[in-house]
Design a protein that fits this description.
Oligomer: single chain
Structural class: alpha/beta
Order of helices and strands: EHEHEHEHEHEEHEE
CATH class of the largest domain: Alpha Beta
Distance between the termini: 27 Å
CATH superfamily of the largest domain: Formyl transferase, N-terminal domain
Bound molecules: glycinamide ribonucleotide
Helix content: 25-40%
Shape: globular
Number of domains: 2
Length: 215
């Protein structure tokens, strides 16, 4: 069982998907701590309801990004987690922090990376006229929304789609692929070679999920 911390800033629907997955019998990860930089994040309530410890580390209380990141690092070390999941965590973490957690920190982003890093991804996908959008779970590199890709899910963009309808459809996919990616990493089946991730098939005969990409 791998202990995990989830970092959030807002609604926490991805956090909820991870909480629900971790509640399943043979799920290999356990959420030990939820940290939010935003004291009003709705995700904090979700964590409390699930009996998970929460901590607010408000970036406004720190003079520098490094001080804020150090505080997060300390909280993570104190509770002894082995993995971090960023789930709608809207602060940029500095390179020192990211390197300390290299290949042990996952992020979910609402685009098919490396396209549309940053904010307003669905608006920009519509403007660019791409035919597909989607979401990506990746290991975090010091660059924004960058790093080895673990899994992605794509959805077709229809002529009548708006940024809102796309965001809703993409979020549904996020809730599927984030628990899948965490499961693969927690089972030790994920290897990073350069910028590429390889996924080892399960050892056990009865394992059915060997393809992380949902249909
Ligand atoms: C999700 O769509 C997530 O992909 C996005 O924020 C939303 C959080 O929703 N993250 C990013 O844009 C990170 N670059 P949630 O709080 O309901 O999980």
């Amino acid at each position: 069982m791998v202990d995990v911390a989830v970092l959030i800033s807002g609604g926490g629907t991805n956090l909820q998907a991870l909480i629900d997955a971790c509640a399943e019998d043979d799920f290999p990860a356990n959420i030990k701590l939820v940290i939010s930089n935003n004291p009003r994040a709705k995700g904090l309530e979700r964590a409390k309801k699930a009996g998970i410890s929460t901590k607010v580390i408000n970036h406004r209380d720190y003079e520098t990004r490094e001080d804020f990141d150090d505080q997060i690092h300390e909280a993570l070390n104190e509770c002894g987690v082995k993995l971090i999941c960023l789930a709608g965590f809207m602060r940029i973490l500095d390179a020192r922090f990211v390197n300390r957690w290299r290949n042990r920190m996952l992020n979910i982003h609402p685009s098919l990376l490396p396209s549309f890093k940053g904010l307003h991804t669905q608006e920009r996908a519509l403007e660019a006229g791409v035919r597909f959008t989607g979401c990506t779970v990746h290991f975090v590199n010091p660059e924004l929304d960058d790093g080895p890709i673990i899994t992605q899910a794509a959805i077709a963009i229809n002529p009548d789609d708006t940024a809102e309808t796309l965001a809703t459809k993409v979020l549904e996919k996020e809730h599927i692929i984030y628990p899948q990616a965490l499961k693969l990493v927690a089972e030790g089946r994920v290897r990073v070679v350069g910028n590429r991730v390889t996924i080892r098939e399960a050892d056990y005969a009865n394992e059915s999920i060997i393809n992380p990409i949902p249909e």
